[in-house]
Amino acid sequence: MTISARVDSYLKDHSINYQIVNHHYSEGAYNTAVAAHIPTKKLAKAVLLIDHDGKHLLAILPSSNILSIKELSKKLDRELQFVQEQDLGVFFTDCAFGAIPAVGQAYNISVIWDDHLKDEPDIYIEGGDHEALIHMDKEDFMKLMADQPHMIISEPGGVLARKIRHH
Fold it and tell me: So what's the pLDDT on residue 88?
């Protein structure tokens, strides 16, 4: 029950104040928010993308939302697609499989974040082990993302909305 050493070091080196919130083991952003007893819109999930030139981009958005990958591709003039789940371990070697921290900077991965996260007074991100979240206030999240590009990259309607639409 600890966070990634690489993320911990990055946050400390950049004077980002945070607390660790432990929760029961869970996989997937929705299940993690439920296990940690937090609103899904406050949990920032990270989605790793790749373009046709092999360049990676970590998109960070509220876990209550769905990434608009076609719109993001148009806005950035890049043909983006999701990185296959089995390939994620190559990038996040100090994390449990699938537990991607929304701190691409610590892994030398370009980041883009969703402006919807600006609406929240505090943010939680995956710690890297399926049992701990990193909690920070809006000021520290903005400090963490200060030099990263941002725009609206998602739309409301996470897991539950997708389930309803498919039935």
Answer: 85
The amino acid sitting at 90 is V
- Identity of the amino acid at 30: Y
CB-count burial class (<10 Å; 0-12, 13-18, 19+) for 64: buried
Paired strand residues for 132 = 22
Q: What are phi and psi of 39, to 5 degrees?
A: -65, 140
HEC secondary structure over 21-70: EECCCCCCHHHHHHHHCCCHHHEEEEEEEECCCCCEEEEEEECCEEECHH
Closest CA to 133 of 10, 6, 19: 19
Domains of the chain: 5-157 (3.90.960.10)
Mean pLDDT by 10 residues, the chain (167 residues): 89 97 93 95 96 96 95 96 87 92 96 97 96 97 96 80 42
Can you tell me the distance from the alpha carbon of 138 to that of 122, in angstroms, rounded to the nearest whole number? 5
Give the C-alpha separation, 115 to 92, whole Å. 25
Burial (CB count within 10 angstroms: exposed 0-12, middle 13-18, buried 19+), residue 71: middle
